[in-house]
Amino acid sequence: MSLASTLLYHGYDGTGGFTGFVNEGTWVIFALILVPIYVMLIAWFVGKPRNVKSQVLGVTYLVGITTMMWGGMFVLTMLIGVLFYGGMPEPISAPGP
Question: How far is CA 33 from CA 22, 30, 41, 74, 96, in A?
């Protein structure tokens, strides 16, 4: 372990089983909370007047922002795992006990 890991590691082990990506919270977010975004996207492509350039630009912005947020959360998760839990989190390393 590095010096930072030795100083910050609290000694708790990971949870049993897979604590990765698809849990109940993921279904709630994608099935319920993002409904207004789905309606907005459908309205962009079904509504009038249609402007393909604006539609593609809007979708590109949404995909870019989402990718940056998920990528940032992934990097932060890895950093927190190394600093506070003494190793990489489960999707990268072996599952819990």
Answer: 16, 6, 14, 21, 30
Q: Is the peptide bond before 49 cis (omega within 30 degrees of 0)?
A: yes
First-last CA distance in the chain:
19
Contact 86, 79 (CB under 8 A): no
Contacts for 94 with CB less than 8 Å, ≥ 6 apart: none
Do 8 and 87 form a contact (C-beta atoms < 8 A)?
no
- Residue 58: count of CB within 10 angstroms of its CB: 15
Place of tokens 């492509």: 45
Compute the residue count for the chain. 97
Question: Which phi and psi angles does 11 have, rounded to 5°?
Answer: 90, 0
Residues 6+ apart with CB under 8 A from 15: 96
Across the chain, which has 97 residues, the per-10-residue mean pLDDT values are: 59 56 74 90 88 90 92 89 80 65
